[in-house]
Amino acid sequence: MSPTERLRDIMVRLRDPQVGCPWDVEQTFATIAPYTIEEAYEVADAIERGDMNELKSELGDLLFQVVFHARMAEEQGLFAYDDVAQAMCDKLIRRHPHVFGDEDAQISGPAQKLRWEDIKAAERASKAQTGVLDDVPVGLPALHRAAKLTKRAARVGFDWPSTDEVFDKLHEEVAELRAEIAAGDLDKAREEMGDLLFVVANLARKLGVEPEDALRGANAKFVRRFGFIEAELARDGRTPEQSDLAEMDSLWDAAKVAERS
Asked: What span, in angstroms and rounded, lies between the C-alpha atoms of 212 and 146?
């Protein structure tokens, strides 16, 4: 028995109403979905840290999520794991005519990307998804989805000519946010904050930057520099609570200098 077959058998046992795990038995697609997203992020985290042993483990966790969803679908007579794998095989072959078909195998990277988008557009049409934005998943992280929405719209010409116009819009949204904050309208401020973040995601897309990756890098940098502050204060036997903003800001600047050296 292959490891994949064994994993599927384990899943069947876990979901058995008589002898399975009560927690696994009561799960649904909706309750498992957050765990699926979490496991995908843990895969990305292992890659970011360059931990290949952890990556192997996290990929296993992600695979288990696929098996879990497939088993629940099989129980309802919808589809099974093999159907999932077959659908992926068909999709890969369909979307790579330059490899599996009679198109030019030496097609350039940019041309391949355009062809890929054309094929996906045809797939959307076959599913009666006629809107340009119809199949951009709602469940994506919001910044990532914003970038994908603007990218999709740009394919049909709805895009600013350059980053100059995006910066102009960015300044406009900042001004509108400040105005709503000054007016004390927190509901409007929340809306303007969303508009501001959307423009930031659009700017990232124009620059060829994945906004989720950029923010993840900024998060890591913040953690690293704040850790420097904590370490420096600990030398004096103190914690951040026993410091003040001026001192911690000075230590933050020292952390930036230390990173450059």
From this structure: 10
- Quick check: 61 and 39 in contact, CB under 8 A? yes
71 and 29 within one domain: yes
Structure tokens at 47: 């890659």
What's the pLDDT tens digit per position in 24-40?
A: 999 999 999 989 999 99
On the 0-12 / 13-18 / 19+ scale of CB atoms within 10 A, 251 is buried
What pLDDT was estimated at residue 135? 81
For the chain, residues with pLDDT lower than 70 are 102-117, 120-121, 123-130
Q: Is 113 helix (H, G, I), strand (E, B) or coil?
A: helix
| 70 and 109 together in one domain | no
Residue 10 near residue 64 (C-beta atoms within 8 A): no
What's the pLDDT score for residue 65?
Answer: 97
* pLDDT for res 136: 87
In 10 A of CB 145, how many CB atoms? Answer: 19
| SS3 state at 138 | coil
The Cα–Cα gap between 5 and 13 comes to 13
Task: Check residue 2 and give its pLDDT.
Answer: 93
192 with 235, same domain? no
The domain spanning residue 150 has which CATH number?
A: 1.10.287.1080
Q: Are 43 and 63 in contact (CB under 8 A)?
A: no
- Domain extent, residue 168, equals 131-209
**What's the CA gap between 122 and 117, in Å, rounded?**
9
End-to-end CA distance of the chain: 55
Examine the domain organization and report whether 76 and 116 are in the same domain: no
What angle is formed at CA 56 by the lines to CA 40 and CA 89, rounded to 5 degrees? 65
pLDDT of residue 129: 61
Q: How many domains does the chain have?
A: 4
